[in-house]
Amino acid sequence: MVGNQEGIGVLKLECPESHPVGRILKEAPHQAVLYDPGAMVGPRRFWPDEDEQPTFKTHCRFCDKTVGEATATLQSQLVNVIADAAVVTGTAPLQYL
Ligand SMILES: [Zn+2]
Fold first, then answer.
1. Separation of CA 58 and ligand 1 centre (Å)
2. pLDDT of residue 39
3. Could you read off the pLDDT of 64-74 as tens digits, one per residue?
4. Which of 9, 45, 87, 92 lies 20 to 30 A from 38 at CA?
5. How many angstroms is it from 4 CA to the middle of ligand 1?
């Protein structure tokens, strides 16, 4: 597999209004994927959680609405970022649920 030598990637999650609603991180090649909801919201944790299949949901505190996307879609987007040696950070739009 051709990929980023460092095997890392960050997927920034945004609500439909482009508000930040967290990040999905792989900061080291052999590290588990983490979800960082933002320092103001809560601690980082492993992602996805069992109850985040098949749909990942979170809350946009700016819109005060629930937003989400298919977990498999976000996972494949993160894989694409990790696999692209020229890109470390991607952005994934979430939808109102
Ligand atoms: Zn929003």
1. 11
2. 87
3. 999 999 999 99
4. 87
5. 31
